[in-house]
Design brief:
Number of strands of chain B: 0
Radius of gyration of chain A: 21 Å
Distance between the termini of chain A: 8 Å
Largest sheet of chain A: none
Number of helices of chain A: 10
Low-confidence stretches of chain A: 1-30
Oligomer: heterodimer
Low-confidence stretches of chain B: none
Radius of gyration of chain B: 20 Å
Helix content of chain B: over 70%
Mean pLDDT of chain B: 85
Strand content of chain B: under 5%
Structural class of chain A: mainly alpha
Number of strands of chain A: 0
Strand content of chain A: under 5%
Number of domains of chain A: 3
Number of helices of chain B: 8
Distance between the termini of chain B: 48 Å
Shape of chain A: flat
């Protein structure tokens, strides 16, 4: 990730960035009405959610291509810089990407339309799938064998997710300790995950007060990696 | 009233969903399987596989699926809106003030504390998933700890399903090397599971 661009963006501020690259000041010069922008946001995100299988990051790459090059509503590299923000704010990665782009293009209404576009295909497809799902003879031994195979693939995917986030999540010994404590708290003492997140936030705030150097180092290492 | 309840439960998930949908699995296990007993762990695993292999963001798919199974079409709608509503409000607020906050030490501190906790949640979800795929039952971490530190009866250990180990390893290799997408991997492992059942 480009650190220079990051600092530029944070210093320039989102408002300034919005002014120089908003749909109203399109390179083509044509002014687009807000309703039209909202419709484009809805339909583009509807298409993205329908055809891009593979979760948040795949959607990020496709959305970046469409809204940077085709519509020029956001800057090149802007989404990459905002990735940390998109992942920090609670919510699904795909939903947060839609909200971010929608908001940059047309404010809260744009964010709403983009979010509806992202959620709509899932809602339609899954409603149909869920209706059919009950008819599947789950107790047939071959069907249950197939589902066992599918759940094994899910286990593999979860393991892979852990490996992928590991380097960014646990980059110093103190964090490794927190990781171990979290695992024990959930699996041995049955602490609810919400409480664990709360403890993580409190721990992080304490670290910001007590060992800020360590925090700064871990966070800057992450940006380089 | 049930619909409001479903909405609230999923709004809670949406609020707690930090660093992407992956960390939600442990929330689903804790809330939907253990606390509310709306579904079994096996069912949750099956739903997740369906959500992974259908178009659209996985989190939205799963929310719609669970909501639909509980309360029909309107239930699916309530769960989906519930999941997305918190991020809509928080994201629009944060985008406005992000440039002011990005270098604040407290924000860095929160990130620093949350990330290992999220990794821990993914790890416990992985352990729970092991119990419904590679192992014949859940790994008894709680009763094992009790046995080691406080005495008592030795808990029954789940046995390993040897025949699923190659499926597990192959799915990881295929996904990691990007030789196959998640949809193909799910189809392949379903076929492998059915074929292995025939040789039992």
């Amino acid at each position: 990730m480009n650190n220079i661009t990051t600092s530029h963006h944070s210093s320039a501020g989102t408002d300034a960035a919005a002014a120089e690259c908003s749909p109203a000041a399109d390179a083509a010069g044509g002014r687009q009405s807000k309703a039209r922008i909202c419709f484009i946001l809805f339909s583009e995100f509807f298409k993205i959610a329908t055809f891009v299988v593979g979760g948040g990051f795949a959607i990020l790459l496709v959305a970046d291509d469409i809204f940077v090059h085709k519509y020029k509503w956001i800057h090149d590299g802007e989404l990459a810089d905002m990735l940390a923000l998109i992942q920090t704010v609670p919510g699904l990665t795909a939903g947060n990407i839609a909200i971010y782009i929608g908001y940059r293009a047309a404010g809260a209404a744009g964010a709403f339309c983009a979010l509806c576009g992202v959620a709509m295909p899932s809602f339609i497809v899954i409603s149909i799938v869920a209706m059919v799902f009950d008819r599947i003879p789950v107790h047939n031994r071959f069907v249950s064998g197939a589902f066992l195979g599918v759940r094994t693939a899910m286990t593999g995917l979860t393991a892979l997710t852990l490996v992928r986030i590991w380097k960014k999540a646990v980059s110093d010994p103190l964090q490794a300790l927190v990781f171990a404590a979290g695992v024990i708290a959930v699996s041995v003492f049955h602490i609810g995950p919400g409480w664990l997140i709360g403890c993580g936030i409190i721990f992080g705030l304490l670290c910001a007060v007590l060992v800020i150097d360590r925090v700064e180092k871990a966070e800057s290492d992450r940006k380089d990696g | 009233m049930q619909y409001v309840y479903l909405f609230m439960v999923f709004a809670g998930f949406g609020f707690m969903c930090l660093s992407g949908g992956g960390s939600l699995t442990q929330f689903y296990i804790d809330e939907l399987v253990i606390r509310r007993a709306w579904m079994t762990l096996d069912e949750l695993g099956n739903f997740m596989a369906v959500s992974q292999s259908t178009p659209g963001p996985i989190g939205v798919n799963l929310a719609t699926f669970i909501g639909f199974k509980e309360l029909g079409l309107l239930g699916g709608l309530c769960a989906t809106i519930g999941l997305l509503a918190p991020s809509f409000f928080m994201m629009t607020i944060v985008v406005r003030s992000y440039s002011k906050w990005s270098s604040k030490p407290w924000l860095k501190g929160i990130m620093y504390g949350i990330k290992p906790v999220t990794a821990a949640l993914v790890f416990t979800a992985f352990i729970a998933f092991l119990g419904m795929s590679l192992l014949s039952g859940q790994f008894p971490a709680d009763s094992l700890a009790k046995f080691v530190f406080a005495g008592g009866t030795r808990p029954q250990m789940p046995s390993l399903r040897w025949e699923m180990v190659p499926v597990f390893i192959c799915s990881i290799i295929l996904l990691q090397t990007k030789k196959a997408g998640i949809f193909q991997v799910i189809l392949l492992s379903a076929a492998a599971g059915a074929v292995l059942e025939a040789f039992k």
